[in-house]
Design goal:
By secondary structure, the chain is an alpha/beta fold. It contains ten helices and 13 strands. It has two domains: about 5-160 and about 190-220, NAD(P)-binding Rossmann-like Domain (Rossmann fold), CATH 3.40.50.720; about 165-185 and about 225-280 and about 300-310, UDP-galactose 4-epimerase, domain 1 (Alpha-Beta Complex). The strands form four sheets. Strands 3-2-1-4-5-6-11 form a seven-stranded parallel sheet, sandwiched between helices. The radius of gyration is 20 Å and the shape is globular. Bound molecules: NADP nicotinamide-adenine-dinucleotide phosphate (NAP). NADP nicotinamide-adenine-dinucleotide phosphate (NAP) binds near residues 36, 61, 81 and 154.
Length: about 325
């Protein structure tokens, strides 16, 4: 693997996907600034590189000057900041998915950044949820300020620290039945976190420009299998060894229940998330994707057993690696 003598700023480098991107960039010799609201959260990323190679950088996401300072001196920039829900009319989708990417893109243009990768979400162009609409607005804001930006749209991302399979596996430990919203017919194309990070690093480091390069292009990232929500539950039960009843919840009823669940400090489900289940989340025919980037994709069956094992009766606890969130013991 060739070493890359460049500096990168990663926004959201403390997150699930961002940690993998930081690790992959550091392994290629890139010096990485992890722009974060809480530098302490990035300390655990330092062992990914040599001494001083991975540096936490405090950033106020609402302040253009602060965002520009985080980017100054960098050749490469990645934005993987995102949220899944907003509370009430807080306007957080607008701030985090639209205004912040616009600030980052503007600072990239003004600081002569060579390549900027923005992580969006698959289905943002067809979805009717406020989440999807804000992600699409964010893409437009990015391209308006930095037309050469590369957009990555992943489907639901899985990997050891994901919130998706881990959350349902956790629920399956306590609940005799799990909800099948809208009959569980919505299709997904789960994609491995390592493959999404590899895509980000590939487009960041690809030196081709013009039509042979990734600049200004949108990549839709999905794994090798398309599964309905019902089938995803099937895979979960297979690898956790915990079979549960599935109870169909019509969208209307699910939204009603979600309006109460969304009052929790960290909502289990929001009405907007129910809305997002009304549209399939799969790569469109003819779209550019992981194959176009030369990335060999990993399927669910290869990865899920490596971290769902711990949800089995008497399952072994996974040994955490650097940058992992602390795991709770499972009894
Ligand atoms: N995970 C998926 O299945 C999935 C699927 C499709 C698209 N995506 C997109 O991929 C990107 C990365 O996803 P992820 O799962 O890695 O995200 P994540 O871990 O949930 O969060 C990424 C980063 O966002 C920042 N952040 C979180 N809450 C915030 C808030 N309220 N205000 C400001 N910043 C906040 C945090 O950075 P600091 O704490 O360091 O400031 C965090 O490290 C996101 O854009 C997401 O929308 C994810």
């Amino acid at each position: 693997m060739s070493r890359i003598d460049k500096v990168a700023t990663v926004f959201g480098g403390t997150g699930f996907l961002g940690r993998q991107i930081v690790a992959d960039l550091a392994a290629r010799g890139v010096r990485v600034k992890v722009a974060t609201r809480v530098p302490e959260h990035a300390y655990s990323l330092k062992p990914y590189g040599q001494v001083g190679q991975v540096v936490p950088f405090a950033c106020d996401y609402s302040d253009g000057a602060s965002v520009a300072r985080a980017i100054a001196g960098s050749d490469l920039v990645v934005n993987c900041i995102g949220i899944l829900y907003e509370k009430g009319k807080s306007g957080r989708f607008q701030k985090i998915h639209v205004d912040l990417p616009a600030l980052i893109a503007k600072a990239c243009a003004e600081n002569g950044v060579g390549r900027f990768v923005h992580v969006s979400a698959l289905g943002c162009d067809t979805g009717t949820s406020r989440y999807a609409k804000s992600k699409l607005e964010g893409e437009k804001a990015v391209l308006a300020n930095y037309p050469r930006a590369v957009i990555l749209r992943p489907s639901v991302i899985f990997g050891a620290d994901d919130d998706f399979f881990n959350m349902f596996a956790e629920l399956a430990r306590y609940m005799p039945a799990l909800p099948l919203i809208g009959g569980g017919k919505t299709k997904f194309q789960p994609v491995y976190v390592g493959d999404v990070a590899a895509a980000a690093v590939q487009v960041l480091t690809d030196t081709h420009t013009g039509k042979n390069g990734p600049e200004g292009k949108i990549y839709q990232l999905g794994g090798p299998e398309v599964l309905t929500f019902r089938e995803i539950y099937g895979r979960l039960f297979q690898f956790t060894g915990r079979q549960r009843c599935l109870v169909t919840l019509p969208y209307g009823l699910a939204k009603f229940e979600a309006s109460f669940l969304s009052l929790l400090p960290k909502p289990l489900l929001t009405p907007d998330q129910v809305e997002s289940l009304k549209t399939d989340n799969v790569v469109a025919d003819g779209a550019l994707g992981l194959e176009a980037l030369g990335i060999a994709v990993h399927g669910l069956d290869a990865i899920l057993p490596t971290y769902l094992e711990r949800y089995r009766e008497g399952g072994r606890r996974r040994v955490p690696g650097p940058g992992d969130k602390p795991l709770r013991d499972i009894r």
